[in-house]
Each structure stands twice: as C-alpha cells, then as structure tokens.
Hints:
Strand content: 15-25%
Order of helices and strands: EEEHEHHEHEHEHEEHEHEHHEHEHEHH
Number of helices: 14
Shape: globular
Strand order of the largest sheet: 2-1-5-4-3-6-7
Distance between the termini: 47 Å
Structural class: alpha/beta
Number of strands: 14
Radius of gyration: 21 Å
Largest sheet: 7 strands, mixed
Amino acid sequence: MVCDGEQILDASTGAVIDALPEKTDGEVWVWCDGCYDMAHFGHSNSLRQAKAMGQKLIVGVHSDEDIRRHKGPPVFTEEERYKMVVSIKWVDYVVTNAPYLTTVQTLDKYRCDFSVHGDDITLSADGTDTYQQVKSAGRYKECKRTAGISTTDLVGRMLLLTKSHHQMGESSLVDPVCVQEGSKDSTTKSPFTGVSQFLSTSRKISQFASGKEPFGKIVYVDGDFDLFHVGHLAFLTEAKKRGDYLIVGLHSDRAVNKYKGSNHPIMSIHERTLSVLACRFVDDVVIDAPYIVTQDLMEHFKVDVVCAGHSSKTRVPSGAQDPYEYPKSLNKFQIVDSRSEMSTSKIIERILANRLKFSERNVKKEKKELDALEAKRRMEGDV
Length: 383
C-alpha cells in the first residue's frame, strides 16, 4: 500500500500504519488532498463537508518539495502540516507525501470512490488543473469553499501588520444571524486569493461544535490560540490527558491586542473559535473568556482542573494579580509542558524573515488564478 515515500497515518492515534482497514460493502470512502499550510478553519470546513459525503475520509498532504515547485515556499514544514491535519476531527487517515496532481490511480490505490475539493481553482506550476483527470473520470465532487479565509490572506495580514480583521466592539459574542469580519488586507483581485471578509454565523459554529454534553473530569484552559499551530496542538493534547472533557477559553480580540500589542491577534475571535473547535481534542469553547479565571467561571462550567502552559501569563510580575489565583487556591491548577518550541511569534518571524518570497508567492498565485478565470470565461463565451 505504501510506496514512493508515502506513509499512512491513523488520525485517531497519529501512528503510522501498514495499510488501510478492509472496506466493507456499501461504504463510501472520500479522498481529499492539499498543502494544508497553516491549517486553518477553511481547510477544516472543506474536510467537514467531504466527510459528510461518505463513511471514511482519507486526506493526502503534499510534501514541501512539491509545494515549492508548484506554489512557492510553505510556512509550515511537512511534518508540522501532517500533525495539524491528523488533529482535525473529521479526518480518518492521512497520507503523507501525496502527489500534487490528483489521479485515478491514487483514488484506486487508497480505495476511494471520489475526490472532493472546494469550488476554487487549484493549478500546478504549468497552469494545469490538478483535478482534471479525476474530473474527466467522473470521480470528482465539489464542496463549498469557505469565503473570507485563505493561507494567502493570513500571510498578508502578517506582512502588512493590519488590524482590520479584529472584532473590537464592546462584546465579541456571536451574532445569531451574522458577524462580519473585515480582513481587507489584500489588494488582489482574484476571488480566491483576494479575500475581503469572513462571515461567521451561529450555524457555522454549531457545525464545528462537538455537541457532546460535559461529562467526567472537566479541564479548562485559556489563551488566544492565534494562528492555531503545532504548539497549541501539543498543549491541548497534554491538557486533554488531565481529564475527560476539555473546554478552551478564548480571549477577545481587544484583550489579546492589549497584552500582545502590534496587530495581534492575526485571526479574529470568530476565526480562532472555529480553528480550535476543529481540533479533535477540544469539546467546547468559551468565546470572549475572561483573562482572570474566576470563581463564577469555574462554578458555571463545573471545572475540575485548570491547565496552563509555560507562557507569560503564568509568569506574574511582582505586585500584579495572578490570573490563576482562584484555581490555585483550590489546588485545581496544573502547569502542562507541551514540549513544543512553536509559538505564534515564531510563525510571524518565519513570514517576516522571508517577506520577499511570500510576497512573490502571493502575486504569482493570484496571476495564475486570474489567467485561469480569463481562459474559462473565453471558453464559455462570456467575453
């Protein structure tokens, strides 16, 4: 089953397996593939939709080498991207070093009935539609692309140091109808690369939520969880081991900007909510959680233990109030060592250190998309 440097990872354990399980009669297996760079909630939403089309979801993740050849430099390494995709709760198996061009041979190899991708354009280095072969074979289905988010847009926010994506009102509670998030950082014109806004709804959040009622020992953690990355993932993995039900408190954009400064957070409160909810270890999220963990919060959610990492929040300056004073007084506080060196700041450093490369990548990607759209219009006789 495994060849050409490909490996199969069982997403439930993260372990390498020799082969996929036997496929039972009537089962539908779905294939998705991609770069999944800075794996964000847009990626997760496409995988959620794909999983709804069948019983098993197998996700192929491209190598660093292939991404550099066809698209430009990735922000996350392939090992980081493999871990992030494994953590997405709708994924059953991950195939590493998956081919950039999706073929019928790949679908047959992994016993998948069809491939699913969003309704945007994906092109190889020479401008070829990477799904053309499976489309021609009738083994391709589309899901709805999540408007208002892309890796390109997130990179743009970091390069331009803008704050237009923040939710800075008096309250960042979710509007039951719709919350508009401006992320007007891009001057591009492609409808796929040139992101203008993210629209969050209560329905979208409910689609990501686990729906499970709290049970057993309840663990609470809090933070900004901006640009959800392998450091966050490692921390949440360890925190979940402290109990049965994991609740993540997310600080508002205003609070995060106050203690981090600059244009932090890079992702708005609603974007961060979906990113965290997509993690298989997270059971619920508190939106606009208080910076200080209070008695009211712990009693309301019946929290048994509060966990924190080795962050600036746990290093309290002399004379300042300890945000974890109350859970500590109850002996319900634990420091969790994620054993990861990754941080949001380090991701931003990667972007800024390679500013020119990423700027060129974004421009190149947009041009390919616009050229493809123009060619499509001409074929359809629209111009």
